[in-house]
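Support request, please re-run this one:
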Amino acid sequence: MSELDWSDEFGGLEEFIKVLGHEVLLRVEDGFYRGNTRLLLRDTKGRYGVVNLEGCSGCYLAAVCRTQEQADRLLTGIRRDIVWKHNARAMRDYLQTLQWTSGEPTKTEEFRAEAIDLLTQIMENPQ
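Re-run finished. Output below.
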């Protein structure tokens, strides 16, 4: 595989998530460089997912991937970390009991509240 400058195409982990075909519905960050990023996702099958991307190491990897193999390794790790639920109600119920221990606690609670509100709106206004 030839050398590629993945950093030109992908500025961070969220761009890798989009490459997987997932829509990013909500993003809440700790607000500092080494902080966590929490994402609420929707895939093309209508499932909902959450992932808590820890620290800057993943962002660093996304910025320095130079080959398809390196990018594939990163994508495999991201896929493994996403928790999927079959619909908005199931994800909302999951989030009500979710206990993430890493990252800034106030940002985790902010994410949980905003995600639950967004999922409730989706349930009330199905498309």
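Confidence is low (pLDDT under 50) at residues 1-8. The radius of gyration is 15 Å.
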